[in-house]
Design a protein that fits this description.
The chain is an alpha+beta fold and 140 residues long. Helices cover 39% and strands 16% of the residues. The strands form two sheets. A four-stranded mixed beta sheet has the order 2-1-5-6, sandwiched between helices. The chain has a two-stranded antiparallel sheet with strand order 3-4.
Length: 140
Protein backbone atom coordinates (compact mmCIF):
# COMPACT_ATOMS: atom_id res chain seq x y z
CA UNK A 1 0.00 0.00 0.00
CA UNK A 2 1.40 3.38 -1.01
CA UNK A 3 1.96 6.07 1.60
CA UNK A 4 2.41 8.80 -1.01
CA UNK A 5 0.35 11.92 -0.49
CA UNK A 6 -2.32 12.27 -3.18
CA UNK A 7 -1.35 15.02 -5.61
CA UNK A 8 -4.44 17.09 -4.90
CA UNK A 9 -3.35 17.36 -1.26
CA UNK A 10 0.34 18.03 -1.88
CA UNK A 11 1.58 21.52 -1.27
CA UNK A 12 4.25 23.38 -3.12
CA UNK A 13 7.27 24.22 -1.00
CA UNK A 14 7.38 27.42 0.98
CA UNK A 15 10.39 29.67 1.42
CA UNK A 16 11.96 31.86 4.05
CA UNK A 17 13.37 34.24 1.41
CA UNK A 18 11.67 35.45 -1.74
CA UNK A 19 14.91 37.17 -2.72
CA UNK A 20 17.00 33.99 -2.50
CA UNK A 21 14.33 31.90 -4.22
CA UNK A 22 13.99 34.37 -7.10
CA UNK A 23 17.75 34.55 -7.57
CA UNK A 24 18.00 30.74 -7.64
CA UNK A 25 15.23 30.59 -10.23
CA UNK A 26 16.81 33.33 -12.38
CA UNK A 27 20.15 31.50 -12.40
CA UNK A 28 18.31 28.68 -14.15
CA UNK A 29 16.64 31.12 -16.56
CA UNK A 30 13.31 30.62 -14.82
CA UNK A 31 10.83 32.96 -13.21
CA UNK A 32 9.94 32.46 -9.59
CA UNK A 33 6.39 31.13 -9.68
CA UNK A 34 4.56 32.16 -6.50
CA UNK A 35 1.12 30.76 -5.84
CA UNK A 36 -1.02 32.38 -3.18
CA UNK A 37 -3.13 29.90 -1.28
CA UNK A 38 -5.58 29.41 1.57
CA UNK A 39 -5.99 26.36 3.75
CA UNK A 40 -8.80 24.19 2.40
CA UNK A 41 -9.07 26.02 -0.93
CA UNK A 42 -10.29 23.48 -3.55
CA UNK A 43 -9.25 25.73 -6.46
CA UNK A 44 -5.74 25.89 -5.02
CA UNK A 45 -5.67 22.07 -5.11
CA UNK A 46 -6.59 22.20 -8.81
CA UNK A 47 -3.77 24.63 -9.61
CA UNK A 48 -1.31 22.50 -7.63
CA UNK A 49 -2.23 19.57 -9.91
CA UNK A 50 -0.38 21.53 -12.61
CA UNK A 51 2.41 23.11 -10.58
CA UNK A 52 3.47 20.25 -8.27
CA UNK A 53 4.47 17.86 -11.10
CA UNK A 54 6.31 20.68 -12.88
CA UNK A 55 8.11 21.56 -9.66
CA UNK A 56 8.92 17.91 -8.95
CA UNK A 57 10.36 17.57 -12.47
CA UNK A 58 12.45 20.72 -12.01
CA UNK A 59 10.85 22.52 -14.95
CA UNK A 60 9.61 25.39 -12.76
CA UNK A 61 10.80 27.00 -9.56
CA UNK A 62 7.46 27.27 -7.75
CA UNK A 63 6.45 27.95 -4.17
CA UNK A 64 3.35 28.91 -2.27
CA UNK A 65 2.46 31.51 0.32
CA UNK A 66 -0.68 31.65 2.45
CA UNK A 67 -2.45 34.99 2.08
CA UNK A 68 -3.59 34.88 5.73
CA UNK A 69 -0.24 33.90 7.26
CA UNK A 70 0.85 36.83 9.43
CA UNK A 71 3.12 34.71 11.66
CA UNK A 72 5.76 33.15 9.41
CA UNK A 73 8.82 35.24 8.69
CA UNK A 74 9.52 35.83 5.02
CA UNK A 75 12.38 37.88 3.63
CA UNK A 76 11.12 40.13 0.82
CA UNK A 77 12.91 40.97 -2.43
CA UNK A 78 14.85 43.78 -0.76
CA UNK A 79 16.01 41.57 2.12
CA UNK A 80 13.60 43.03 4.67
CA UNK A 81 11.59 41.00 7.18
CA UNK A 82 8.02 40.45 6.10
CA UNK A 83 5.25 37.84 6.24
CA UNK A 84 3.45 35.87 3.53
CA UNK A 85 0.29 37.93 4.14
CA UNK A 86 2.21 41.19 3.74
CA UNK A 87 3.77 40.02 0.49
CA UNK A 88 0.42 38.85 -0.91
CA UNK A 89 -1.03 42.25 0.00
CA UNK A 90 1.90 44.08 -1.60
CA UNK A 91 1.18 42.26 -4.88
CA UNK A 92 -2.56 42.85 -4.44
CA UNK A 93 -3.03 39.09 -4.63
CA UNK A 94 -6.24 39.00 -2.61
CA UNK A 95 -7.68 35.86 -4.18
CA UNK A 96 -6.50 32.30 -3.86
CA UNK A 97 -5.18 30.92 -6.01
CA UNK A 98 -3.24 33.69 -7.70
CA UNK A 99 -0.12 32.62 -9.60
CA UNK A 100 2.58 35.26 -10.01
CA UNK A 101 5.55 35.03 -12.38
CA UNK A 102 8.36 37.04 -10.81
CA UNK A 103 11.86 38.09 -11.77
CA UNK A 104 14.90 38.37 -9.50
CA UNK A 105 13.90 41.84 -8.24
CA UNK A 106 10.28 40.83 -7.65
CA UNK A 107 8.98 42.35 -10.87
CA UNK A 108 6.06 40.62 -12.58
CA UNK A 109 7.25 39.09 -15.84
CA UNK A 110 3.88 37.98 -17.22
CA UNK A 111 0.22 38.53 -16.50
CA UNK A 112 -0.78 36.72 -13.33
CA UNK A 113 -3.30 33.90 -13.30
CA UNK A 114 -6.15 34.58 -10.86
CA UNK A 115 -8.48 31.78 -9.84
CA UNK A 116 -9.36 28.70 -11.85
CA UNK A 117 -12.10 29.68 -14.29
CA UNK A 118 -11.50 27.14 -17.07
CA UNK A 119 -9.71 24.02 -15.79
CA UNK A 120 -9.45 22.48 -19.27
CA UNK A 121 -7.47 25.49 -20.53
CA UNK A 122 -5.44 26.24 -17.40
CA UNK A 123 -2.39 24.27 -18.53
CA UNK A 124 -2.22 26.26 -21.78
CA UNK A 125 -2.55 29.57 -19.90
CA UNK A 126 0.16 28.50 -17.47
CA UNK A 127 2.55 27.44 -20.25
CA UNK A 128 1.99 30.71 -22.13
CA UNK A 129 2.82 32.75 -19.01
CA UNK A 130 5.91 30.66 -18.33
CA UNK A 131 7.11 31.10 -21.94
CA UNK A 132 6.57 34.86 -21.73
CA UNK A 133 8.39 35.05 -18.40
CA UNK A 134 11.36 33.06 -19.67
CA UNK A 135 11.59 35.24 -22.77
CA UNK A 136 11.57 38.42 -20.66
CA UNK A 137 14.32 37.01 -18.44
CA UNK A 138 16.45 36.20 -21.52
CA UNK A 139 16.01 39.75 -22.85
CA UNK A 140 17.11 41.13 -19.49
Amino acid sequence: MSTATPLRHRALPGTSSLRASARAAALRGEPLVVMTTLDGCPYCDLVRQYLVPMSDAGTVHALQIDIRDRQSRLEDFQGRASTPAEQASLYKARFAPTVLFLGPAGQELAERLVGMAVPDLYGAYLEARLDESRARLRRG
